[in-house]
Specification:
Oligomer: single chain
Largest sheet: 4 strands, parallel
Number of strands: 4
Number of helices: 3
Shape: globular
Structural class: alpha/beta
Strand order of the largest sheet: 2-1-3-4
């Protein structure tokens, strides 16, 4: 899965990359399956989506494991 991320999320992106996600900073000229952000939601909306669309995921307060789970589900919901 190709994921773009807000610049200040580089440590989280590195952890997700180690889990097998293809990570790129926001602004990269690449079609993304998902966009991770915490505060730059307007910029996240300008991301280039992949063919089946891109999930916009606010990862504020999430661990890498929680973000990975949300990415695999293509949705963020209550974490039980």
């Amino acid at each position: 899965m190709v994921v773009t991320y807000q610049q200040d999320l580089a440590p989280l992106a590195q952890q997700l990359g180690a889990m097998g996600f293809e990570m790129h900073p926001m602004g990269a000229d690449i079609a993304a399956d998902a966009v991770l952000f915490t505060s730059q939601s307007a910029r996240a909306l300008t991301a280039m989506p992949a063919g089946r669309g891109a999930v916009l995921l606010n990862v504020k307060g999430m661990s890498a494991a929680q973000a990975a789970q949300a990415l695999r589900r293509r949705a963020a919901g209550p974490i039980l």
